[in-house]
Write a structure and sequence with these properties.
The chain is an alpha/beta fold. Helices cover about 40% and strands about 15% of the residues. The chain is built from ten helices and eleven strands. The protein has helices at about 5-25, 45-60, 75-85, 105-110, 125-130, 140-150, 170-180, 195-200, 245, 260-280; strands at about 5, 35-40, 60-70, 90-95, 160-165, 185, 205, 225, 230, 240, 255. A six-stranded parallel β-sheet has the order 1-11-8-7-5-6. It has a three-stranded parallel β-sheet with strand order 3-2-4, with helices on both faces. Helix 2 crosses helix 10 and helix 6 packs across helix 7. The radius of gyration is 19 Å and the shape is globular. It binds NADPH dihydro-nicotinamide-adenine-dinucleotide phosphate (NDP). NADPH dihydro-nicotinamide-adenine-dinucleotide phosphate binds near residues 140, 166, 194, 213 and 262.
């Protein structure tokens, strides 16, 4: 069986680092602050927001939670974003997606000041990532890079296959692997032969949202398998896009769901918020 990449352990190391630096910053009167906005009652979003707030407490940040009703108008939400943009106590602003259908997510994202956009979704931050000169990386792909780094596997020259091309995960993921000199293939719902693409992968990242899409017959012996997917199986249990049971013996390293990418996403959000706080106070970059 391949080695399991322990996302909980690795994320704890990241959070411990952030907590140490935060304690130092506090000595000079700076406490990083993260504002989290949630609109509506989406149960999954409620859990994510709770976990993010808990992580803020763990590392010593101040967190500000704004729970808005489902029927909040786009104008009202933008008013709040603008208020937070101007608030010096708020270094990072996160608007939990998805937003209700009547609100245009891209308009909201575009109104968050890029220097407070700790999710790195704003077009200015996306552009910077493309160029390779950035302050923040989007949390999930950044977390995946940490998980791959923890294996000691060098990405340079490796066949990297990313399944999924969303703006939040798939596309930036591919870009980060490319920055590390991987040979990158991006697959999506129109890919003709997903199995043959996946079979070439030395490093396979699945970010699809289809439970157990990647099965053992689709992966190469010795591949590093990273599962971003968060789905529910037939019994309502959390599961990924990779069928862990049929893949674990072929992989050299594999992430579990839960306990793989999920905790890393939150840890990287903490790191981004710390970076934002430092930059806004003239420390660092
Ligand atoms: P999206 O729905 O935005 O994107 C899914 C992608 O998968 C699309 O590019 C789509 O292709 C592709 N796809 C769908 N079906 C297939 C298929 N049968 N074969 C190949 N490709 C397919 O999802 P996200 O990127 O936002 O999220 C992906 C998964 O990751 C979800 O399960 C989500 O919950 C999870 N997630 C987990 C996080 C974590 O912290 N662990 C954070 C963020 C997301 P096309 O573009 O052609 O439609």
């Amino acid at each position: 069986m391949g080695k399991i990449i322990d996302g909980k352990l690795i994320s704890k190391a990241v959070k411990d680092d952030v907590a140490r630096e935060t304690a130092e910053l506090k000595k000079s009167g700076i406490t990083p602050g993260l504002a989290v906005i949630i609109v509506g009652e989406n149960p999954a979003s409620q859990i994510y927001v709770r976990n993010k707030q808990r992580a803020c407490e763990e590392v010593g940040f101040e967190s500000f939670k704004y729970e808005l009703p489902e029927q909040t108008s786009q104008e009202e939400l933008l008013e709040l974003v603008n208020k937070l943009n101007k608030d010096d106590k708020v270094n990072g602003i996160l608007c939990q997606l998805p937003l209700p259908g009547h609100i245009d997510e891209s308009v909201v994202i575009n109104n968050i000041l890029p220097k407070k956009d700790v999710d790195a979704f704003h077009p200015e931050n996306v552009g910077k990532i493309m160029i390779g000169d950035y302050s923040f990386l989007p949390c999930t792909p950044a977390g995946v890079m940490e998980l791959i780094a923890s294996t000691g596997v060098d990405i340079k020259g490796k066949e990297c296959v990313v399944v999924g091309r969303s703006n939040i995960v798939g596309k930036p993921m591919a870009m980060l692997l490319l920055h590390k000199s991987g040979t990158v293939t991006i697959c999506h719902s129109k890919t003709k032969d997903l199995k043959s693409e996946c079979l070439r992968a030395d490093i396979l990242v699945a970010a699809v949202g289809v439970r157990k899409l990647i099965t053992g017959d689709m992966v190469k012996e010795g591949a590093v398998l990273i599962d971003v997917g968060m789905n529910r199986d037939e019994n309502g249990k959390l599961c990924g896009d990779i069928d862990f049971e049929s893949c674990k013996d072929k992989a050299s390293y594999i992430t579990p769901v839960p306990g793989g990418v999920g905790p890393m996403t939150i840890a990287m959000l903490m790191r981004n918020t710390l970076t934002a706080a430092k930059e806004q106070n003239g420390i660092g970059k």
